[in-house]
Design brief:
Four copies of one chain form a homotetramer. By secondary structure, chain A is an alpha/beta fold. Chain A has two domains: 5-137, NAD(P)-binding Rossmann-like Domain (Rossmann fold, 3-Layer(aba) Sandwich); 140-360 and 367-385, Dihydrodipicolinate Reductase, domain 2. Helices cover 32% and strands 25% of the residues of chain A. Chain A has ten helices and 17 strands. Chain A has helices at residues 15-30, 47-57, 66-71, 87-96, 111-126, 141-151, 183-186, 190-206, 339-353, 362-381; strands spanning 5-11, 36-43, 61-63, 77-80, 100-104, 131-134, 158-166, 210-218, 223-225, 242-244, 250-257, 262-268, 277-284, 287-292, 298-303, 312-316, 385-386. In chain A, the strands form three sheets. In chain A, strands 16-15-14-13-7-12-11-8-17 form a nine-stranded mixed β-sheet. Chain A has a six-stranded parallel β-sheet with strand order 3-2-1-4-5-6, with helices on both faces. In chain A, strands 9-10 form a two-stranded antiparallel sheet. In chain A, β2 (36-43), α2 (47-57) and β3 form a beta-alpha-beta unit. Chain A binds chain D through residues 155, 159-160, 162, 164, 166, 168, 171, 214-216, 218, 220, 250, 252-254, 256, 262-264, 266, 268, 270-274, 283-288, 302, 304, 310-312, 382-384, and chain D through 155-156, 159-160, 162, 164, 166, 168, 171, 214-216, 218, 220, 250, 252-254, 256, 262-264, 266, 268, 270-274, 283-288, 302, 304, 310-312, 382-384.
């Protein structure tokens, strides 16, 4: 009656680590999983800090070198929650060691790294080892419903996408130069961190791919105080020394989809008052959708009406027949941002159990990376750029 | 370094049981608690069902008689998640056995039962045993912020309260006669189930009490199919036999607060399209607040402005300095309905650890019960009724 | 080819006078009317003031005694825009002189006055003289659409009405004692001024009547500065002398409709931050509606859906097939509050031209007055009161 | 005491003609103007149609040749409401004849035409003859308030603009090929018709100019039924013959402002469900604004708060101290789309009376035209294009 255990080793324990830990703990309590996930080992470079995090978040042991995690026999899954610069190295090693891999987004900091990861994933898949990139917003029920409606043709032919991801956490010029603002670690700024989400989502919702882009990027605040600690996790108000911001504060681009839709995209950390404003709006020949992450339980749907009462309607996506929602509460009892990770873990474990490839694959992650790279190239050169030509 | 354990015994494992279990598991992962809660024993009458629930929800053992739970030495806290008709018996026995008690709302099905519980709670408190009634919406961060703002005088003198709790799950006349529609088990209908929430909240937000009420209640659908199962947990579409609905479908009342505010209250299960629409609006001499549970991360605040730009502003209550929110995610990453239970458990355990009486006390639960009873009496007799005079 | 003229005499030239003047001027420019309204004479007691108003608002002549207006041969319609205390006298005299009468709401300050007006209207109707009470919100396109939807059965059987009319223009205790706060002139306070609107609307939308009520009224600020001018039109900040406020600041009541619906009503001038917040929400067995006057071009409609995508939808009531809207602009180009008067004038003139009785009739105005009187009686005595029994 | 008359001659009597006529009639009723506008002559090519329109809209006479209007001694102002292709010819002739000119937007169909108009306007101004281009949305009170707030520095340094103008009236592929879809008459499609509005507004709100753009345009439906009538005013469902659509259905572009702000712009007639959705959002270093034309009485304002209660607040822009609003109704009584024209006429006549140049000038209209031309060039060539270099 008891299920086989699935040993999890997680690398990284900050923001994403906390979200993933909660999801690993909670998924089996709400969903019927084929395996029983066990929080086997948590990995971080600072022994005391990782030990404290492990205790608080419920991990059975800790390591300070990710290679040790990859080498452990009691680890079946490696969950990569580090900055993008180390994704490729860890994920490839884990796959080669026969560990299933769940890797945070964006897949990597460059197309080159992403390609290596895809190659490793394909080799591993042949041996039954699974991999997945953690674009968690695919698991927002309202967005999964949106994809279903588009797939069912309810919107007709898609003409327009307008997607923004607006935050404002670095508007203060004295906010310090944390790792997310350093190109070597983060790859890019708003573009990779939050722009990657809207690129993935748009491609996923439309089941289409972005073919070409024209972009601009901007860094409004060029220098910032260096953080007081080596880890770069200091809060507002750094030291007196300043360093150069080497990533974009905002990235804007026009896009053409292969299927004919046209789009605007915008990712910014300078949209004062918008804390986590990922909004996406899609217009088709027969209907439209609108979504806002700050109200993630809601989907706005417009369908051309037979009578005089047409209008955008607010679907409260909390019904038992909405994606993943039968596991949760009665209708109208909303879920939070963290639930997207629980759904992601659920789908990952179910796929692993069924010997299926979970989605989104590393190849899809590479697809996003190619768009990001085209955006970067277009912004640098001021011309329209085809995706995949770099 | 490790914390003392706190053995939890929970009676009931349906809707509230699942929410509480998640909260017991999750609270120590996000908050620094003085004790380490252990999911010791889950109790339900159907052995197979409770065993399955216990496994799924992470309980170490199960019992089929709540008396066994109360009698166990490894249980420090009894969490009462049963229908209201058994609250008094279980809670009083648990308190007499020296167990701290967390009891679901409403406290009881009658003022008489509630009084007995308050008496037991007062005797127990003298011996250091704590009790709390689980009005979880006090732990919505937006509502805790609302109370803080009112307490700070930001709204001036309160003049108006309008509170509704609107659901629609029994609009279909073929929805079966579940226990919540049977007076012997539920005490009342919409009034006790959801009306109790808005009564408690209004009194809590204003730090005031309802002094008198004038009410009407209505049962729109008088008979319903009997559920197919003894447990009364059947879904839509019962058997052919019908039984009489003995509770209210909707309860409406006017109220005067002791401090001078006037109010309308409405609780209904027949508000088609409103799944979980608890809305509360408060007007004071200097400002106003509005809240909607379907958007529980938001609080609307109006303050009389010095200039020409006054207006209701939407506070996204996800900042680190908002109540409980430093434990969660970065600003703009919303939480869900279930988090109210995690906050409740956090506050309960902290109070127990500090040898404080957690809030809301059983006495506050009795206060709500007295309002409900006055509403029932007013509706029956068609006259204004003072609270506490029954 | 030219149309017969319809001479208009209007009594009163303040707020309502300006709105009606604009409507008389504009209606023939957008609607095809059977008569050509002519702004013949404007009447007010202060000769200089009325002369200035007449010039500004486009009236051909002025009078200072309403009896002169009623007696003029070139006047076919008397439009009564005075405070409620003089409605009965003017309207009855005008009807007896064979003038069609459009009378501002509420019809009168008492049921007795209203009865006399209804009797006069019935006598006049026998001779082809028409009368109408100006509940202009019936001519909000969104509300006319709402009535059509309810009449078509789209909401099923109506169970709930919750209607509020919230303003805040006298929250400041130094706002002066203008005529609207004096019982002799205004009859009542929030109840008659704005409560009458929601009573009329609710009865009109449901095609039903309120059968009984239970009410409370409150006057939060008991004394106010006397206005500096005799006319009572002074702004904030009156003189040093204070007088007693003799009307209600707020009126709240529960109601039962003859057809079985139950309702809450609230009219207040102390809802800080709500400038003109008339909101009405209706729940039926098959659907629901919600409306807010501050967004008067929108109607929220919920219909039980066949699939999983149900939700309240926002109808932007600006389509050519929406009531009156074919006369205006392309879809999405919103209209304002004043358009309700233009629609009202249009319907009045069309009815007069067709020798029909325009709606709402004085009898309907009396019906509203009876509800208001029952509310007043219930509030005074603290008991449920049947409408019409006073 | 009576004011000097101002004789108006208007060319064109369709959509814009109706809006302008209403404004000419209404402006002197609500605002204190230095001149008294007289609706002297209406001009259109079809004698019967223009005669009917003139009667309905209150014009004293009609002409069928605009040259006759320009030549009349009783005409002081020529109001140009024709398609863009004839703006230059009429406006230049009128200015040369010493008539003040109000010209509908966009100023012209090309930069060349616009330059000629600016030259004529400058020559005329030297002789005291005034000219203005009718970008009416500058006279939305909420947007005038927005400009005032930005000008006062309330938003700090502006970083982001995102502006869309979304309509859906030609989504149906059988909607006929009306003049607005023909390049010879309309110049461009969504770009010039509605894109011009958001370009003007953005530049006006920021008091800045767009320096460079990168654009794409798209025509989703390439052929449409020819309209059944020569005038091109047929409704949905044209004849069997089809013609080529020669304008854009949608235009999207990125922009850099001279002052450093970056922006996305989108104008589309294919945004299903958006009837008249002009939305603009601006983020600065200290605050943000958001506006939606479908709720034109509202402005959303965010200001970085000193405490924990920051949020976007909804200003209902209906207070007496809001731009133009003291002329209208009490707070909370909303105005409609057409009021923007009344405000525009008010400002135009006041400027003429004060011998001032009204705003926006033809030079500002040329500025918009230069942006539109840069957009067209950029879309054609796929490169970033500086404004003014064509």
């Amino acid at each position: 009656m008891s299920k086989p255990r699935l040993g999890i080793g997680m690398v990284g324990y900050a923001f994403m680590g906390a979200a993933h830990s909660h999801a690993w703990r909670s998924a089996p309590r709400f969903f019927d999983l084929p395996w029983d996930p066990e929080l086997t080992v948590l990995c971080g470079r600072d022994r005391d800090a990782v030990a404290a995090a492990g205790r608080r978040m419920g991990w059975s042991s800790v390591e300070t070198d990710w290679r040790a995690v990859v080498g452990r026999d009691d680890v079946d899954v490696v969950d990569v929650c580090t900055p993008g610069s180390s994704h490729a190295e860890i994920a490839v090693a884990a796959l080669e060691a026969g560990k299933h891999v769940l890797c945070e987004k964006p897949l990597a900091n460059s197309v080159g790294q992403a390609r290596a990861m895809v190659a490793a994933a394909e080799r591993a898949a042949a041996a039954g080892t699974r991999s997945m990139v953690a674009f968690n917003y695919r698991r927002v029920p309202a967005l999964a419903l949106a994809r279903r409606l588009i797939g069912d043709g309810r919107l007709g032919q898609i003409r327009h996408v307008r997607a923004v991801y607006l935050q404002d956490w670095i508007v203060d010029p004295d906010f310090p130069l944390v790792w997310r603002l350093v190109a070597e670690q983060a790859g890019s700024g708003a573009l990779g961190d939050i722009g990657s989400h809207i690129v993935d989502l748009a491609q996923h919702l439309l089941s289409d791919r972005i073919a070409s882009v024209c972009a601009l990027t901007e860094t409004f605040v060029k220098e910032r105080p260096l953080p007081r600690t080596a880890s770069g996790l200091a809060g507002v108000g750094g030291g007196e020394q300043r360093g150069r911001v080497t990533v974009d504060d905002a990235a804007l681009f026009l896009a053409r989809f292969a299927g004919g839709a046209i789009a605007t995209f915008e990712a910014s950390r300078f949209a004062t008052g918008r804390r986590n404003g990922m909004r996406i709006e899609i217009n088709g020949s027969a209907g439209s959708l609108a979504f806002d992450l700050e109200r993630l339980n809601e989907l706005q749907l417009y369908e051309a009406a037979a009578d005089t009462t047409g209008g955008f309607r607010r679907i409260l996506v909390t019904e038992a027949d909405h994606p993943w929602m039968s596991a949760w509460w009665p209708p109208g009892h909303i879920i939070g941002w963290e639930h997207t990770f629980i759904h992601e873990i659920r789908d990952f474990v179910v796929a692993v159990g069924a010997a299926d490839d979970p989605q989104p694959s590393f190849a899809e992650g590479l697809g996003v990376q190619q768009v990001l790279e085209a955006v970067g190239a277009s912004a640098a050169q001021g011309v329209w750029t085809s995706v995949g030509e770099q």
